[in-house]
TrEMBL record:
Pfam families (alphabetical): CARDB (PF07705)
Organism: Methanospirillum stamsii
Name of the protein described by the UniProt record: CARDB domain-containing protein
SUPFAM superfamilies: TPR-like
All copies of domain CARDB, residue ranges: 133-245
Amino acid sequence: LNIENQILATDLSYSEDLDDKLELLLKMGRYNEALDVSDQQIAMLGGDGFSRPRTIFLRGKTLSLLGRYNEALGFFDSLIRDGSLKGESLEQKALIMEKLGQDYEALDLSNSQLTPSISDTIHTSTAPINLLPDLTITKISMKQKENVIAGTLTIENKGSGDAGKFTITYFLTDTLKYDPIFGNNDIFVLGEDSANGLAVGDQRDSKDTKMFTIPGNVSPGSYAVGVFIDSNNVEEESDEENNVVYDISWVQVG
């Protein structure tokens, strides 16, 4: 702590020392003071500022913490193009895009997993940002009338990433245990539906009642109606264990 106070109290003249002072001010939440130090640093370096990646990175981080996102993006983009501190810069850019409410899946976030080179002097986290959807059924209602089953359902994306197009499979089962091999003795497919995608936090309600005829090969007995979302396993999700839901208003066959 004494060393930190000494650094903050000293009128530093070397660019490396100013980097240390700037980084310390950011850690302490003194962002306006950090901006003053950054201004001093940029003025000292003049046209050679972009030859010091650490200085440019800290400048961008300072502007970002002050809410000056568009200015900050310019500094991070320059580092990404140059390949200096690329992982950390991509991570900071992704955080800014999230705050701006923009779709940043197009960013090459896989590059944020790159290990910093020996010359990199900023040791920030480079953990990848992995945003995945989580599709789940929140409401289901299936009714039988003779050999026809009709009903509605609501699907919600409770994950942190948007889902693309996925398939919904309806089936009958007498076990209430999901079996991935449709068409065996206790799983009978009724039909399929498709969804064009589902954004984070959105839900998809059935626009009309889905109707299916009970297949002729279903043996007499009592069955539950099951619904399997993303049945083709196209979407990688944060939770793959909640994609099957049953309506246990038992269907009687035969």
